[in-house]
Amino acid sequence: MSSELPAKLQGIVDLFATAPRELRLQALLDYSRRVPEPPRHLIGSDMFEDVPECQTPFALATELDPDGAVHLHFDAPAEAPTVRGYAGILREGLEGATVEEIQRVPLDFYMDMGLVELVTPLRLRGMEAILARIKSRLSEPA
Q1: What is the torsional sign of CA 60, 61, 64, 65?
Q2: Residue 18, pLDDT above cutoff 50
Q3: Is residue 2 part of a domain?
Q4: Phi, psi (5° rounding) for residue 74?
Q5: Is residue 142 part of a domain?
Q6: Which sign, positive or negative, has the C-alpha torsion 68, 12, 35, 124?
Q7: Domain containing 64 — which CATH number?
Q8: For a 10 Å CB count at each end of the chain, is N or C smaller?
Q9: CB 24 within 8 A of CB 113
Q10: Percent share of the chain, pLDDT over 70
Q11: How many domains does the chain have?
């Protein structure tokens, strides 16, 4: 399986990679504000799965529509802007992609974004853990 990024995610990676350091931090915070509340039908359901590798409480749910498009839902506290920023990046970059497109995304795609200057390696691995959990959820039988 070759690795490539869906066009929306590649655009986000390119935006971060070319932005000055201070704008990258602002962009991460901006993405943290873009994470919508989970849909009512998912709140309190067992469709949400915790991502214990994240340093803050974080859960995700995936849904697949009849056309094969993946929909991502996240539950993270507003007081956790870094992990919410990761969620915002992944949601915007992967929302509506197919399972196959998401499975081709390398777990460490974020290394090209210049985030290592802003966030500790331990916290950066949260993005990898979230993507790994998404991929795992999508590989489970329906």
Answers
A1: negative
A2: yes
A3: no
A4: -130, 150
A5: no
A6: positive
A7: 3.90.1010.10
A8: C
A9: yes
A10: 96
A11: 1
